[in-house]
Amino acid sequence: MEFLDEELNQYAEAHTYQEDELLEDLNRETNEKILKPRMLSGHMQGRVLSTFSHMIRPHRVLEVGTYTGYSALCLAEGLQEDGRLYTIDVNEELEEMVRRYLARAGVNDKVDYRIGNALDIIPAIDEEWDLVFIDADKVNYANYFDLTVDNVRPGGFIIADNVLWSGKVLEKNRKKLDEDTEAIMAFNDKVHRDVRVENVLFPVRDGLMVMRKR
């Protein structure tokens, strides 16, 4: 997932506003105790998400894919005073850890954390979204987009993670076209053609597709 020279990556992180102690603890615990810790948003991407949230000042945020809660905490930083963030994940084994860090951050009253299948949960939430962050199973990225885009307010944003997929969107970087890679490529093409949004693909970490609702 590292596309820049490692020293440039280190320079960029060194000149990016630091994680607070809570996020450092969550980063460390995820890497020490949880499988596939590279799924964590981490310092650089976390600050990017926080910056977007502060710029948008969202009233309602939807996150599809909580993992250990790092990105949820970053997105919650820019919420309006009466704002609310809904975050959905299928992995109930991480619930205790996520709720522990939400409590430490003091955002329990602002975060609605739900365990289950997002394809079933999203249609049951009656909200207009200011910001949607998609970071879950890649084969359903297009479905998550379709389930949310019409409920994003005009001028609102959808952000999707991992859209470069470790560089495998390029044929030279893969041995075969697997299901996840194919789904990511189809998703990128789909949103690029969709007249409801304007999109920019940011080569940050593993790629962020940022879409503004027209």
Describe the structure in your own words.
- With 214 residues, the protein is an alpha/beta fold.
- The chain has one domain (6-213): 3-Layer(aba) Sandwich (Rossmann fold), CATH 3.40.50.150.
- The chain is built from eight helices and seven strands.
- It has helices at 6-14, 21-33, 42-56, 70-76, 95-105, 118-121, 141-148, 179-193, and strands at 60-64, 84-89, 111-115, 129-134, 152-161, 197-202, 208-213.
- A seven-stranded mixed beta sheet has the order 3-2-1-4-5-7-6, with helices on both faces.
- A hairpin with a 5-residue loop joins strand 6 (197-202) and strand 7 (208-213).
- It is globular and about 45 Å long.
- The relative contact order is 0.13.
- The mean pLDDT is 96.
What keywords describe this structure?
single chain; 214 residues; globular; Rossmann fold; alpha/beta
Give the SSE map:
Elements (H helix, E strand, L loop, with lengths): L5 H9 L6 H13 L8 H15 L3 E5 L5 H7 L7 E6 L5 H11 L5 E5 L2 H4 L7 E6 L6 H8 L3 E10 L17 H15 L3 E6 L5 E6 L1
Parallel strand pairs: 1-2, 1-4, 2-3, 4-5
Antiparallel strand pairs: 5-7, 6-7
Q: What is the tally of beta strands?
A: 7
Tally of domains: 1
SSE topology string? HHHEHEHEHEHEHEE
| CATH second-level architecture | 3-Layer(aba) Sandwich
What would you say about this model in short?
Helix content is 38%, strand content 21%. It is α/β, with parallel strands linked by helices and 214 residues long.
